[in-house]
Write a structure and sequence with these properties.
The structure holds three protein chains of three kinds.
Chain A (H helix, E strand, L loop, with lengths): L22 H15 L6 E5 L14 E4 L5 H11 L4 E7 H7 L1 H10 L4 E6 L34 H8 L3 E6 L3 H12 L5 E6 L3 H7 L5 H11 E3 H4 L11 E8 L5 H11 L8
Parallel strand pairs in A: 1-2, 1-3, 3-4, 4-6, 5-6, 7-8
Antiparallel strand pairs in A: 5-8
Chain B lengths: L7 E5 H12 L3 E4 L6 H10 L6 E4 L3 H13 L4 E5 L1 H17 L3 E9 L5 E5 L4 H6 L8 E3 L4 H18 L2 E7 H5 L1 E5 L44 E3 L13 H16 L2 H4 L2 E4 L6 E4 L4 H14 L4 E6 L1 E3 L3 H7 L5 E6 L4 H10 L4 E4 L8 H5 L3
Parallel strand pairs in B: 2-3, 2-4, 4-5, 5-8, 7-8, 12-13, 12-15, 15-16
Antiparallel strand pairs in B: 1-9, 5-6, 7-14, 11-13
Chain C lengths: L3 E10 L3 H15 L3 E7 L6 E11 L11 E6 L2 H7 L3 E10 L13 E4 L1 H9 L5 H13 L4 H11 L5 H20 L1
Parallel strand pairs in C: 1-4, 4-5, 5-6
Antiparallel strand pairs in C: 1-3, 2-3
The chains are: A alpha/beta, B alpha/beta, C alpha/beta.
GO molecular function (chain C): oxidoreductase activity, acting on the aldehyde or oxo group of donors
Keywords (chain C): Oxidoreductase
Pfam families (chain C): POR
Chain lengths: ~270, ~375, ~180
């Protein structure tokens, strides 16, 4: 049994998440990854926005910052630039990162600042009671989409890759052990890394869309997931409604602070680069 | 000759603000271009890398304010500068900084509003927004210098107040004082009092991040030193964790407000001239104080008993102090480049009507505007 | 008794009037040891539009920084003259670029109508330095700032590498002013 309590603020438990919520699965995978990384926990800072997922930092024993809705990446940018030696992990949700924080998300990716983003995607606003988010699939219901959403949804991984992220991965709460590995890989990347994790919301998403229990959602993830290596061999039409898992995209680009540090090092008295 | 090496320099308000911030120890600036504040960002983008500081142009003013708070929480004195539309966008995170007690300085170079308004013209329409722009009952420290020398002095004071009280301090400039070039005598930096936030001497495990103490300002420790504490914009207890418990929330909100209100005498500052025997007073702030001073000076030369009062700190509002000076006045004139935002406060504080001289056309209040009402 | 000397430099955006005002103010305030302010009003255009830059020089601290009663007005464009001409006090000095501004009739006070941009073009090969030629004229005509202080201020304010041509432009205006005054 992994000693989770070593990393938990046990006096803050019980948590506020619903029975069957995926947040706990992600939290545990993240702690396993942190443990395996061997990183000095005093150099880890967790930053979140607002929403169910963003309550995670309150339960884990690190320096933790719970910010305003959508703005976690912008707060994290300030922390990372002020203390580049820190490892900053941003915990966010689909509404937090893709709707209200969408602009910060694409620009943080574009800068390629060394941040790791763990995006809990439950395809709905849970904290406010079940409204559709930018990742709610077309036709599915939310309390403000009573006839089904008429909007197409974002592919978060494609968005991040297009914006400039150097590591983009996806998995689901069904694939709990894969999560550890992907989070660890993301943490070891120098640059903007994203792990999108499909996460069940039984209370609102499953309920409003008559999708059964949390277990039914998890089994759905199992059925519909295709490893990225296999997906690459399939015709795009065969990937409709599928969840492609694994390391979706990986590249190398100069990291933001490394570039900025050159300015700090290279500038001479007369203001010109050496 | 390199004029940057002189201690007497011709400088604009925006230049003085950037220079003074560096002297105050500011090493992180995040901002978004907006007229008429942009020169502050331009100067700091050149200067900060040279002193191992960080300048970043963010994607908007929301992100600018957020990253300023993040950097300050990591222990670095931080600042942003903007104008009306950007100041509106910053309000939510200014509230976060007030709630989480993160020091920082927010410069708002006022231009004509509302909305996009008059980007290149001066105004003083953000006096109430600076006080009440973010939601909820909250404290505020707002300073409003009117000359380039005052901008220099009050930029440093803004950082000092912010660090001491752990609160975002708002510096209201206007297009006039930002862009005017005038003579500044730069003090020897070693002669300046620079205040830094009080760091805790407690060890991790003993440290209680929002523990009340005699001056109502909790001790600070930056992130990354092994203290493992939690910071949130939710109502929280002394340990920093969210709570809904009425008694604890009540204590928090009252302490946040009291830490400023109970220290108001240490924060507020009035500049006065010709007040001792005056029977008529002109009260003005920011660049309007320049017109007011001109009128007071000219009329004194003619033997008219006119006094000049310039509040350099607008919030906490120096109402009692002003009322005390003007208690025997025959008339009180309050010129401002808005429709009477501060004159209303002065009327309330002095419990009597004042003559409000207003302009909202993008022009500075002229001496004639004031003379007409004398 | 204190003195207050008000100068307005007017024309269109991009003619370097703000820089010219800053040089004048720096010379007066820093190198001549007086007090000076330079302020401007501008529109959204980076180039074109009407632009004005005002310099107040005084021996005491300057509170109100805008012109109240203009002692010297420089106009580079007809539009600037039409807009700002009436603020020149009776007896105040007017300097116009005669290629662009029609010389007003019946003015009380000195009028210097000179082809300033053309002078710059002829002396330096660049009409762009007309602003600095105008500073030479103002210095020579009024003596409100010293020649030496102006030369120091020009060297400190103009872009690096252009000091020489700007000093030459200043000298061109200054010499012309002295020539006009002695004739």
């Amino acid at each position: 049994m992994f000693p989770y309590s070593k990393y938990l603020r046990t006096n803050r438990l019980p948590h506020i998440w619903c029975t069957g919520c995926g947040c706990g699965i992600i939290l545990k995978a993240m702690l396993r990854a942190v443990d395996r990384s061997g990183i000095d926990r005093n150099t880890l800072i967790f930053v979140s926005g607002i929403g169910c997922s963003s309550r995670t930092p309150g339960y884990i024993d690190f320096d933790t910052l719970h910010t305003t809705h959508g703005r976690a990446l912008a707060f994290a940018t300030g922390i990372k630039l002020a203390k580049p030696e820190m490892k900053v992990i941003v915990l966010t949700g689909d509404g937090d990162a893709c709707a209200i924080g969408g602009n910060h998300f694409i620009h943080a990716a574009r800068r390629n600042l060394d941040l790791t983003v763990i995006l809990y995607n439950n395809r709905i606003y849970g904290m406010t009671g079940g409204q559709p988010s930018p990742t709610t699939p077309y036709g599915e219901k939310g309390t403000t989409a009573p006839y089904g959403s008429i909007e197409p949804s974002f592919d978060v991984c494609r968005l991040a890759a297009a914006a400039g992220a150097v590591f983009v991965a996806r998995s689901t709460c069904y694939h709990a052990t894969q999560l550890d590995k992907l989070i660890l890989k993301a943490m070891n990347i120098k640059g903007f890394s994203l792990v999108e994790i499909l996460s069940p919301c039984p209370t609102y998403y499953a309920h409003l869309n008559r999708l059964g229990t949390s277990l039914d959602l998890l089994m759905g993830y199992k059925r519909n997931s295709i490893p990225v290596e296999k997906a690459r061999r399939l015709d795009p039409s065969e990937l409709k409604d599928k969840i492609v898992t694994g390391v979706i995209y990986k590249t190398e680009r100069p990291e933001y602070f490394e570039e900025y540090h050159k300015l700090q090092q290279g500038i001479t008295e007369n203001g010109r680069l050496r | 000759m390199n004029r940057n090496q002189l201690n007497i320099r011709l400088m604009s308000g925006n230049e003085a603000c950037a220079e003074a911030a560096l002297i105050a120890g500011m090493r992180f600036f995040a901002g978004y271009p907006i007229t008429p504040s942009t020169e502050i960002a331009e100067i700091l983008s050149r200067r900060l890398p040279k002193v191992k500081g960080v300048f970043i142009q963010m994607e908007d003013e929301i992100a600018s304010m957020a990253s300023v708070i993040g950097a300050s929480l990591a222990g670095v004195k931080s600042m942003t500068a903007t104008s009306g539309p950007g100041f509106s966008l910053m309000q939510e995170n200014i509230g976060f900084a007030i709630m989480a007690e993160i020091p920082c300085v927010v410069v708002n170079v006022q231009r004509g509003g509302p909305s996009t308004g008059l980007p290149t013209n001066p105004a003083q329409g953000d006096v109430m927004q600076a006080r009440w722009g973010t939601h909820g009952d909250h404290p505020a420290i707002v300073v409003a210098p009117g000359t380039v020398n005052q901008v220099f002095e009050w930029t440093i004071k803004a950082f000092n107040l912010s660090e001491y009280y752990r609160i975002p301090v708002i510096m209201l400039l206007d297009e006039i004082v930002s862009h005017i070039n005038e003579k500044v005598i730069l003090p020897d930096p070693s002669s300046l009092a620079i205040i830094n936030r009080k760091h805790t001497t407690k060890m991790p495990g003993e440290y209680i991040p929002y523990q009340n103490n005699a001056n109502m300002v909790p001790e600070f420790i930056e992130f990354g030193l092994g203290y493992h504490y939690h910071v949130t914009g939710l109502s929280h207890d002394e340990s920093g964790f969210p709570t809904n418990t009425p008694g604890i929330v009540n204590k928090l909100i009252r302490r946040l407000n009291d830490k400023i209100e109970k220290h108001r005498h240490q924060i507020i500052k009035l500049k006065t001239e010709f007040v001792d025997d005056a029977d008529t007073f002109i009260i003005a702030y920011g660049s309007t104080a320049r017109s007011a001073h001109f009128v007071a000076r000219m009329n004194r030369a003619k033997g008219i008993k006119i006094g000049f009062i310039q509040p350099l700190v607008l919030w906490p509002f120096p109402g009692k102090e002003i009322a005390d000076i003007v208690k025997n006045a025959k008339s009180i004139i309050v010129p401002e480049m808005n429709l009477g935002q501060l004159s209303h406060e002065i009327e309330c504080a002095c419990a009597r009507p004042v003559i409000s001289v207003n302009r909202v056309d993008g022009n500075m209040i002229t001496p004639e505007d004031i003379l007409e009402r004398l | 008794m204190s003195f207050r000397y008000e100068i307005r430099l007017s024309g269109s955006g991009g003619q370097g009037l703000v820089l010219a005002g800053q040089i004048l103010a720096e010379a007066a305030a820093i190198y001549d040891g007086k007090n000076a302010t330079q302020s401007q009003s501008y529109g959204p255009e980076a180039r074109g539009g009407s632009s004005r830059s005002e310099v107040i020089i005084s021996d005491e601290e300057i509170d109100y920084p805008k012109a109240v009663s203009i002692d010297l007005l420089l106009c580079f464009t007809q539009e600037a003259w039409n807009k700002y001409g009436r603020d020149l006090k009776p007896g105040g000095i007017l300097i116009i670029d005669s290629d662009f501004v029609t010389e007003p009739k019946d003015r009380q006070g000195a009028v210097y109508a000179l082809p300033i941009a053309a002078m710059a073009e002829k002396a330096i090969g660049r009409s762009l330095v007309a602003n600095i030629v105008a500073l030479g004229l103002i210095t020579g005509i009024t003596g409100i700032v010293t020649k030496e202080s102006m030369e120091t201020a020009i060297q400190s304010r103009v872009p690096k590498g252009t000091e020489k041509i700007n000093l030459k432009a200043f000298g061109c205006g200054f010499d012309k002013a002295i020539e006009l005054k002695t004739n």
